[in-house]
Amino acid sequence: EDKVVQSPLSLVVHEGDTVTLNCSYEVTNFRSLLWYKQEKKAPTFLFMLTSSGIEKKSGRLSSILDKKELFSILNITATQTGDSAIYLCAVATTDSWGKLQFGAGTQVVVTP
Amino acid sequence: DGGITQSPKYLFRKEGQNVTLSCEQNLNHDAMYWYRQDPGQGLRLIYYSQIVNDFQKGDIAEGYSVSREKKESFPLTVTSAQKNPTAFYLCASSPAGGAFSEQYFGPGTRLTVT
């Protein structure tokens, strides 16, 4: 059975800290790994990772995939209160058409 | 503006009643999805549709039904057979075809059944 596990489940940091979120997966026929940010409502897309070792960056957020060890990390540097959200990791496989398997998410709270 | 709309934002129902959640998209996407989100469990797939007049069960389809009569619309009915219907429901869409793409989400409907 395919599995996507995120850790930690929640964390609280102070503004300015750096946060590292983990997503490990056990799936057959891996295609891509996606990160989403969910504030109050709709998850918004952050990154899609398909190749190992290539870092994707967007402002203070970055992410990388390790297909040998089957995990991805999402880094947030110089955190701000607006980074408070649930961060969701999802995996797509080549045999599941467009379907995504989601992890439970990591709740991040950034305090002033 | 292109996007996905879900209505209503909040919905309250008595146990034993069927309820239909609306999902509309004007992104011209072929594929649409329904997810359920419970605290600490991430998103779980209920139903998905790759094309008009076709849909497939996801991981937790029992107690739910859908229809896809139009490309832009994918309503979800929560029936009285669903044992724990209280949850946050998210609709998503994506372009279909050979190239894989991320899914775009609507703002969600929070359903409370008492």
Describe the structure.
The complex is a heterodimer of chains A (112) and B (114). Chain A is mostly beta strands and 112 residues long. Chain A is built from no helices and 11 strands. In chain A, a hairpin with a 7-residue loop joins strand 9 (85-93) and strand 10 (101-102). Chain B is mostly beta strands and 114 residues long. Chain B has strands at residues 4-7, 10-13, 19-25, 31-37, 43-51, 54-57, 64-66, 76-78, 87-94, 104-105, 109-113. The model of chain B has no long low-confidence stretch (mean pLDDT 92).
Keywords, separated by commas or semicolons:
A: mainly beta, 6-stranded mixed beta sheet, 5-stranded antiparallel beta sheet, 58% strand, B: 114 residues, 11 strands, 0% helix
Give the averaged pLDDT of chain A, no decimals. 94
Beginning-to-end CA distance, first to last residue of chain A: 41 Å
Q: Element order, helices and strands of chain B?
A: EEEEEEEEEEE
How far is the N terminus from the C terminus of chain B?
A: 36 Å
Low-confidence stretches of chain B: none
Total DSSP helices of chain A:
0
Q: Helical content of chain A, roughly?
A: under 10%
Strand-helix topology:
The complex is a heterodimer of chains A (112) and B (114).
Chain A lengths: L2 E5 L2 E5 L4 E8 L3 E9 L5 E6 L6 E3 L2 E6 L4 E6 L8 E9 L7 E2 L3 E6 L1
Parallel strand pairs in A: 2-11
Antiparallel strand pairs in A: 1-3, 3-8, 4-5, 4-9, 6-7, 7-8, 9-10, 9-11
Chain B lengths: L3 E4 L2 E4 L5 E7 L5 E7 L5 E9 L2 E4 L6 E3 L9 E3 L8 E8 L9 E2 L3 E5 L1
Parallel strand pairs in B: 2-11
Antiparallel strand pairs in B: 1-3, 3-8, 4-5, 4-9, 5-6, 7-8, 9-10, 9-11
Brief characterization of the structure:
The complex is a heterodimer of chains A (112) and B (114). Chain A has strands spanning 3-7, 10-14, 19-26, 30-38, 44-49, 56-58, 61-66, 71-76, 85-93, 101-102, 106-111. Chain A is mainly beta.
